[in-house]
Amino acid sequence: MRSAFLMLIAVIPVLAAPRHSVTVLLDFDQPHSEDSVKAMRAEAKQLLTGSGIDLDLRLRSEVPENAEFVNVLVFKMTGRCTMDPNPILLDERGPLAEAYETDGRILSFGAIHCDQIKALMKHSPKPGFFSRGAMLFGTALGRVLAHEAYHMLGDTGTHTKKGVTRAALSPADLSELGPLFDEDARDRIQRKLNR
User: Fold this and answer.
1) Quick one: 19-190 is in which CATH superfamily?
2) DSSP one-letter string for 154-166
3) Residues 99-129 pLDDT 10s
4) Rounded Cα gap, residues 112 and 117, in angstroms
């Protein structure tokens, strides 16, 4: 019995998915909220952890120029990344974010459009969204970041049928509790990183 137990202990590490450290650098072009960045970090980390990702989210302005990373994603954060009670009115049909691409390859650079996300969030079914602002806005930013990280880490332009990696996200997807990070998205990221 003891030898069977020891064999089981020896097999468990082999079955566990390998972990990969991924650093995300945020490059803000206008003012941002520290509370929103904190909530963004927590949400993105929670969504990506099942994919074998240990996320380290940092402000690009705080990273030395000679810093080196194994896996790094860089996001230009456009617009005012603060919760204004009266967001700029934009056409909500534009992209919330984008991962850049060249020659059919998804790059590890992209943009997240804060004003676009705020414009969509004004339709949030969550009561008092703008009065509870920074945390809920940060959660929405984290979900958008996880969506784009899927494209970058999975090197794919395709979307899944469910969860935050679907083609279009609604205000409810960005504000309600419990969005899924699709299993197909997790598998794709793990396959790419484990090569």
Assistant:
1) Collagenase (Catalytic Domain) (3.40.390.10)
2) HT-----SSGGGS
3) 999 998 999 999 999 989 988 887 766 555 5
4) 9
